[in-house]
């Protein structure tokens, strides 16, 4: 698989922008927190503060069950609880989920700029597809690679390379944006430029400035300025 230093200064012109989903394009934490607290209530446990659940939202059902019930994978009750969480979440997948502020404007800007855009997420397709059907992003992505599209998920670079192939572009012509270290690792391994979404589901133990990304974004709209800087350097 191709690799490239994410901090390298000379790149071919950018043709595509790829996004992680949870914590990058969509604020899914309210619905995930609701599902976890519903499950805790059914087991006679008090609800957790949504702000305490938020950092786990980017890491999926495994992280949520570990947080909510203090269990580890392999524990007897872990998988039944995880399946119950997912079932409840699927039934209410977009009750409170919204695009992060500025995301719709960013996607419109990408289209006006002639850039392709897509989604690469570890969220399984049976959750990703209905979620995207219910949340308006202003335009449909040109590609979606879900957590079960391939046999491997991020931090393996294969899903990102698959997305580039679907778009008909080289990996070095893409930038990948995500809010977790695995996103940046996958993007770097794929030979893409990478950006950390600092507005996403990071927790106090994360050190995003050590992940080796090309840059960081404080808010979705910062991507427009980043693209402008790349254009000034001749990279878009």
Low-confidence stretches at least 5 residues in length (pLDDT < 50)?
1-8
Which secondary-structure class do the elements indicate?
alpha/beta
The N- and C-terminal alpha carbons lie at a distance of 24 Å
So what's the overall shape? elongated
Number of helices: 9
Number of domains: 2
Describe this structure in words.
This protein has two domains: 16-27 and 97-232, HAD superfamily/HAD-like (Rossmann fold); 29-91. It is 40% helix and 12% strand. The protein has 236 residues and is α/β, with parallel strands linked by helices. The chain is elongated, with a radius of gyration of 18 Å. Strands 5-4-1-6-7-8 form a six-stranded parallel β-sheet, with helices on both faces. A two-stranded antiparallel sheet has the order 2-3. Helix 1 crosses helix 3 (60-69), helix 1 crosses helix 4 and helix 3 crosses helix 4. Helix 6 links the parallel strand 4 and strand 5.
Quick structural overview:
Helix content is 40%, strand content 12%.
Defining key terms:
236 residues, Rossmann fold, six-stranded parallel sheet, 9 helices, 8 strands, 40% helix
Topology:
Elements: E1 16-19, E2 26-27, H1 29-42, H2 50-53, H3 60-69, H4 78-91, E3 98-99, H5 103-113, E4 116-120, H6 125-134, E5 143-145, H7 158-167, E6 174-178, H8 181-190, E7 193-197, E8 215-217, H9 222-232
Parallel strand pairs: 1-4, 1-6, 4-5, 6-7, 7-8
Antiparallel strand pairs: 2-3
Helix pairs in contact: 1-3, 1-4, 3-4
């Amino acid at each position: 698989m191709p690799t490239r230093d994410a901090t390298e200064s000379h790149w071919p012109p950018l043709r595509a922008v790829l996004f992680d989903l949870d914590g990058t394009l969509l604020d899914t934490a309210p619905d995930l927190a609701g599902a976890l607290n519903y499950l805790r209530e059914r087991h006679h446990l008090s609800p957790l503060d949504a702000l305490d659940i938020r950092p786990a939202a980017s890491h999926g059902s495994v992280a949520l069950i570990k947080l909510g019930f203090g269990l580890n994978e392999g524990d007897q009750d872990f998988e039944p609880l995880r399946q119950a969480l997912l079932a409840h979440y699927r039934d209410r997948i977009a009750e409170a989920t919204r695009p992060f502020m500025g995301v719709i404007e960013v996607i419109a800007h990408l289209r006006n700029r002639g850039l392709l855009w897509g989604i690469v997420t570890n969220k399984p397709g049976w959750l990703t597809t209905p979620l995207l059907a219910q949340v308006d992003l202003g335009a449909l992505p040109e590609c979606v690679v879900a957590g079960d599209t391939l046999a491997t998920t991020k931090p393996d670079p294969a899903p990102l390379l698959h997305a580039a192939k679907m778009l008909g572009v080289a990996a070095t012509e893409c930038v990948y944006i995500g809010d977790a270290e695995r996103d940046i690792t996958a993007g770097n391994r794929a030979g893409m430029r990478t950006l950390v979404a600092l507005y996403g589901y990071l927790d106090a133990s994360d050190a995003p400035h050590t992940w080796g990304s090309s840059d960081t974004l404080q808010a979705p709209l910062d991507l427009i300025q980043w693209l402008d800087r790349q254009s000034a350097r001749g990279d878009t």
